[in-house]
Amino acid sequence: MKPPSRSWCWLPTGSTTFAALREDGLAAAASGSSLQPIDAAQARRDAAAGGGAQQAEPHPPAASSVQSAGVPLLRLQQAGVRFGEVQALRGVDLTLYRGDRLVLVGPNGSGKTTLLRLLHGLVPFEGRREAFAPQGRTPVLAMLFQRPFLLSLSVRTNVRLGLWLHGVPRALRAERCARALQRVGLDGEARRPARDLSGGQQQRLALARAWALQPDVLLLDEPTASLDPGAKREVEHLIEHLAQDGVTVVMSTHNLGQAKRLGTRVAYLEAGRLVVDLPVDRFFNDVLPAEAAQFLKGELSWKG
What we know:
Strand content: 15-25%
Shape: globular
Strand order of the largest sheet: 1-10-9-4-8-7-6
CATH class: Alpha Beta
CATH superfamily: P-loop containing nucleotide triphosphate hydrolases
CATH architecture: 3-Layer(aba) Sandwich
Number of helices: 10
Mean pLDDT: 80
Structural class: alpha/beta
Helix content: 25-40%
Radius of gyration: 19 Å
Number of domains: 1
CATH topology: Rossmann fold
Number of strands: 10
Oligomer: single chain
């Protein structure tokens, strides 16, 4: 059965399963891009306004010296996100290049998760968000949250469902699923109920489900925060190998050692602003703006 043009339409929109699948990045459009639900609405608004993007109030640019020879995949220009009276992101300028391993750091509530959602196209926004098509198609994105949602089905079925929602032909699903599970070391657990797995295994399954979609960009929201040290090392190892396969990675973390190990770029956010965006070696060695320097020293002052 071929999925509809919006692959979540087959589920009741008020159901828990619908919300969780959409939240976990499985509800990508059948065309292969997970960008269009928000972008299409934005495009219609832009067209109604005469073709121009909504102009956000300008903000001081982040301290940045990122100059990449890579191919640009996504670009944000003066992008902002508001939830009611709360301005979660403001004036964000960011370009994501193929091959980047961008790590987002900052205190709780600084906007890291919201920025990941914005890159994925899951939230309404101000400003401009542009997806490039270096291979004749918009980039495919997949997103993992700290606690991935798994259905009460087998490990294998959880992966195959993602492939079905993504519009992968039936003839290709079994092979793609098997390769993904082997990639994360869960091929021996294919028939096991997914919710019986350990925390580390569940996160590896979520990575397999995302990798099976053959994404250009993998968005990870604190993927190891709830794991024990052994499981954390396993997941870090997988993320590093996926990046070596050519997948562009954007991840948030509170672990600065993890940022050093896994990142090629580090971006610091505070109060919804992108304050610093630098290559990893410069982020940890250069003189930084005061708030970023305080964060690195563990001397960030919390305000009630």
